[in-house]
Amino acid sequence: MKKDSPTLSRRGLLGASAVAAATVAVGRPAAASPATRTQLPTDNYRIDLHAHFLPPDYRSALLSHGFVTIGGYPTPMWSPEAAIDFMDRYGIEAQALSVSDPGVSFLRGKEANDLARYCNSYAADLFKAHPTRFAAFAVLPMPDVPASIAEAEYALDVLGLDGVVLLSAYDGIYLGDPRFDPLMAVLNARGAYVFVHPASIPADAKPESPIPDFVEEFTFDTTRAATLMIATETLVRFPNIRFQLAHAGGTLPFLSHRIGLAAQTPIGDLWPATVPRLSVLDVKNRVNRFYYDTALSAAEPAMRSVLAVTSRDHVVFGSDWPFSQLTLTGSGDPQPELSETFSHEDRVEIERINPLRELPRLRDAVGG
Asked: What's the domain range around 312?
């Protein structure tokens, strides 16, 4: 890993987010309460927007470079057959596949470009062979912005992939940093759907802890990326991009008001000159534009926090399979906790209607 940038870096944001992020007033209250008037559908109705794949050559590359765990979780096996079996056991019609952390960022130059192209071509072939079972978000050879632009154009325009997956940070530089603006402009021009997945933090940039990164640090890193995108007005400057935050937005919904207090206090006088100072309303309007997935975050405390900052139509279903396979070993309802917050009608909206609205190619393939 390269050392952190002296400007909008991973370490810099740790200190700056308290003063550089903005204010969020409490948003809409939850509109739904658990209901028992109807039953959930018994067929494969769910559309999974947080699901991963590890094509053979990609998994081999990970292992050969020492990635025997991802975020502290043992690097899983994956196959199309296993994915379809999982979907059939849990009422999932289709998965939008993406490469998880570390993407292809453990490589550089031609190796990174070639591995990204391999993964994206593999995904395109997969959903052509199984058009009603798979969609895909393209992995890019970040942090190489010119190469990532070229791959995004090829993946979206030629391969017809359904969006792009970006990690929260690359080499300590977070999404929202102006160095990534040329890529954002390309994605904005295409109205791209962008899945923001957390990245593992280098050991020298976090406290020592026996707790695996996927338990806590992943959620914190999603929060840092979202906070910087708000503070640098990424969502305003690139309004056609729809950003999905993994794991219910990390800790962003819970911290949204606290993060923004700086704008209302004397601390606001210390606002960095390079970061726009936003109003309370500005930030509220930014936070509620993100999409929030349910992966490993379906319980009521997380969902109530999400509904406090956005509306139900910005919540989408995610399983995090195969990284969640140790908790999903049977069949039936993959996230029964959702019924603590949502009615069955609302769950169908979250688990099917909202995801298909954002992925028109998949919507056409499965028939709406």
From this structure: 10-366
| Widest distance between CA atoms in the chain | 59
Per-residue pLDDT of the chain (368 residues; tens, 9 = 90+): 433 433 445 544 444 433 333 333 333 334 444 444 468 999 999 999 999 999 999 999 999 999 988 877 889 999 999 999 999 999 999 999 999 999 999 999 999 999 999 999 999 999 999 999 999 999 999 999 999 999 999 999 999 999 999 999 999 999 999 999 999 999 999 999 999 999 877 767 667 777 766 666 778 889 999 989 998 889 999 999 999 999 999 989 887 877 666 556 555 566 566 666 655 556 777 899 999 999 999 999 999 999 999 999 999 999 999 999 888 999 999 999 999 999 999 999 999 999 999 999 999 999 87
- Residue 293 · residue 317 · CB < 8 Å: yes
> Domain containing 197 — which CATH number?
3.20.20.140
Q: For residue 216, give Cα distances in angstroms to 18, 195, 222, 247, 257.
A: 19, 19, 10, 11, 20
CA atoms within 13 A on the CB side of 313: 4
Nearest to 244 by CA among 325, 328, 163, 336: 163
pTM, rounded to two decimals: 0.85
Domain for residue 165, yes or no? yes
Other CB atoms within 10 A of residue 318 CB: 31
Q: Within 10 A of 164 (CB to CB), how many other CB atoms are there?
A: 27
Domain assignment of residue 134, yes or no: yes
- For residue 90 the two structure tokens come to 């849990």
1 part of a folded domain: no
Tokens at 186, concatenated = 């390309």
Contact residues for 208 (Cβ-Cβ < 8 A; gap 6+):
none
Residue 202 lies in a domain: yes
Rounded CA separation 318/310 (Å): 17
Domain count, the chain: 1
